[in-house]
Amino acid sequence: MLKDLFGKKRKFATVPSVSVSRDPASANDAKEAGVREKEVPEGLMNKCPHCGTIHYSKDLEKNLRVCKGCQYHFSMTAPERLAALLDDGALLEEFDANLITSNPLGFPGYLEKLEKDMAATNLNEAVVTGEGLLEGNRVVIGVMDSRFRMASMGSVVGEKITRAIERAIERRLPFILFSASGGARMQEGVLSLMQMAKTSAALSRLDKERLLFISVLTNPTFGGVSASFSSLGDYNIAEPGAMIGFAGRRVIEQTIRQELPKDFQTAEFLLQHGQLDMVVHRKEMRTTLAKLVEMHTTQEGVEAWLESSPLKSL
Fold first, then answer.
1. Using N-to-C axis directions, what is the helix angle for 282-297 and 78-85, rounded to 10°?
2. What is the CA radius of gyration of the chain?
3. What sign has the CA pseudo-torsion 149, 153, 156, 157?
4. Which of 45, 100, 216, 292 is most deeply packed, by most CB within 10 A?
């Protein structure tokens, strides 16, 4: 009895290879007769954490990892995000793919964890940056991947984002960044916190050059990332239901000794209170970003904006 309660859960669901009666005696007879059960690997199906709808993984990918039942947005990897957004589904050029984090503070076990994440994700760090085409317009883009150390911001993440911004300045291109992070990377201490200032200073130079920066915040975006570059966009956009903030809900409630609203730190709450400009469904994200880029970077886009702008009557 106790063994059944505390035994390890199986990693695979079992499905009989032939039809077997539910009668216990018949089931035992089938086992004795050598009827085997097929094992179905994990990952074949996904259950929505909000409404409980079961999706085949392939169907979920075709729907851009959005639940058909309640429109919950599952997390996306960096390659999935780029494939859904860019023309031809890939970067024209990837930046600084070989930059790898060291262990500047000698934090125990840090390098081993990095190597484990590299093997699991096929990435060298928690952000992918490069240049691509968005409906024919060149853009510099960065995408954070929460599979790698929860996309925490270490020195290499900050460096890659800063270099991407500098390339956007050199090439006179818009910069789009998809954030998803738990915050600063504790294994790098103050070096991680310095990335907040470095990335923000680079974005200040981008702004002085009058180049476009679109920040897209996805679930979750917290800590030093939300307190720096992800909140500095000319447009701050979020996906529906994304959790965005600095400290966690429980920490804030314990500090101020008040109960917070149920929708606190959601994208919809932040839009209502002025921290976001738009909440955009994932299926509309590519079209929305393409329109913003065209409006700010092409002559046709500028003319179309002026035609519909109140400034026309001035």
1. 60
2. 23
3. positive
4. 216
